[in-house]
Amino acid sequence: MKRAKFIQKAGVIGLVPAVGLTACATSEPDNTENVLDVAELKKELTAAWERSELMTLTNMEQMPPEYFTFKYTEEAMTFSEQWRHCVVYTCGQLASRAGLVNPYEDIKLPVQMPKEEVIGEVKKMYSFVRQSIERLSAETLMSKSDFAGDEIPVWRLIYALENHIIHHRGQCIVYLRLKGVVPKGYYGW
Hints:
- This protein is mainly alpha-helical and 189 residues long.
- It is built from 7 helices and 2 strands, in the order ααααααββα.
- Mean pLDDT is 85; it is low at 11-35.
């Protein structure tokens, strides 16, 4: 199911109100057209993160190893730091807001890492997110969490964290172009 279909099935065009989502999550699956089933939600979240991983790894693989320390201005993060930031931020936010153990709680990643190590950490991050989606209870997915000055359900936080990665992946596409690498085209969400 595509994201638009998922949102439509959840009952709205934009973001699903938590009250409506909670009601849908506790309804019998065949009672209404707008019922959101937790298994379907987990399937959608997993599909989004699998696609995100493919696109992220494609982006990372394209950058030659010698340019992982490249940054376009002194104030900017290097290519390597962009991905390190995504790993630490994603795991930290998801763990703290969904009541999970942060895999990086007692690990301090070096600021600069070689290409192979950065890619390895990014793969671990995506694995952590997928495993978390699989293991989270319906109650936790629907529970509210403070985030960016708002209160949102954990399932929406998971999409917000993927959106954060999209932001940094877009920055890294510019890094590729500045180093003369033509990024591979996007191929659907």
